[in-house]
């Protein structure tokens, strides 16, 4: 966080209880455990997923790359007021190892701007996926856009 100039006093990580090596290492490094996870775990079958249903004029596509950092930072901040997603920070995130633009999905509004989004993370070894964050611009809420981007990403 210091190296990248990120403000804040807390960094969260995760480790499954069965991953004793990671738990031990984090504990040795001074991390403390919180009993409540920072996200909700759900399980669903990936067979027979519903198709993404969008209102007329909206479509879903993957991010194209760091050239969209400013627009992506804008939708993140609009969906989560107070978030620190400045364009330069979002660009660094998009250029970091592990990020793949094809796993970040945007709902594009009829006018061309981003209306909703999610980022997906996959752990193929444990057969677990994480959709985080999922957000919708306030001007486009109550249209089930988040409800559409989630199954699209799961497909």
Q: What general form does the structure show?
A: globular
Which class do the helix and strand fractions yield? alpha+beta
Strand order of the largest sheet: 1-2-3-4
* Total beta strand runs: 4
Q: Please report the number of helical segments.
A: 4
Mean pLDDT: 86
Unreliable spans are: none
**What is the strand content?**
15-25%
Helical content (DSSP H or I, runs of 4+): 25-40%
Kindly provide the radius of gyration, computed on alpha-carbon positions and rounded to a whole number of angstroms: 17 Å
The helix-strand sequence is: HEHHEEEH
Biggest beta-sheet profile: 4 strands, antiparallel
Separation, N- and C-terminal Cα atoms:
34 Å
Notable traits:
155 residues; alpha+beta; 4-stranded antiparallel sheet; 4 helices; 4 strands
Helix-strand layout with pairing:
Elements: H1 20-28, E1 59-62, H2 69-79, H3 87-95, E2 104-108, E3 114-123, E4 128-136, H4 145-154
Antiparallel strand pairs: 1-2, 2-3, 3-4
Helix pairs in contact: 2-3
Structure description:
- The structure is a single chain.
- With 155 residues, the chain is an alpha+beta fold.
- The chain has 4 helices and 4 strands, in the order αβααβββα.
- The protein has helices at residues 20-28, 69-79, 87-95, 145-154; strands at residues 59-62, 104-108, 114-123, 128-136.
- The protein has a 4-stranded antiparallel sheet.
- The longest helix has 11 residues, at 69-79.
